Hints:
Blueprint: H1 3-9, H2 17-40, H3 45-65, H4 71-95, H5 99-120
Amino acid sequence: MNSLNKEGLSKVPAVTLIFWIIKIAATTLGETAGDAVSMSMDLGYLVGTAIFALFFVIAVAVQIRAEKFHPLLYWSTIIASTTVGTTLADFADRSLGVGYAGGAAAASSAQRAVTLIDERFPPRS
């Protein structure tokens, strides 16, 4: 496959200095949005997580269906992942009381379970 075709199939931006600047800004925006909804609007971490999880699922579904790279869609999905991650981590730490280490252990266990399921049931060709 030539480089033009590879570029046409890629749905992620090139990793450059601008990429990292935008990534840091997107992460900061996600953290701020998570805190704004959960704390400033006094909705709580569980409601904040539910709101951002819905946004995340929609963004990921649209990103998967996209046939090429769309910067706004890509960065919206990144922001959605940071906001749901922030509110979920805060919920685990502050509401459930398991701390960040407990939340990280739970997330790591969930990731491993998904990997094992994926290995056990590969996609059909």
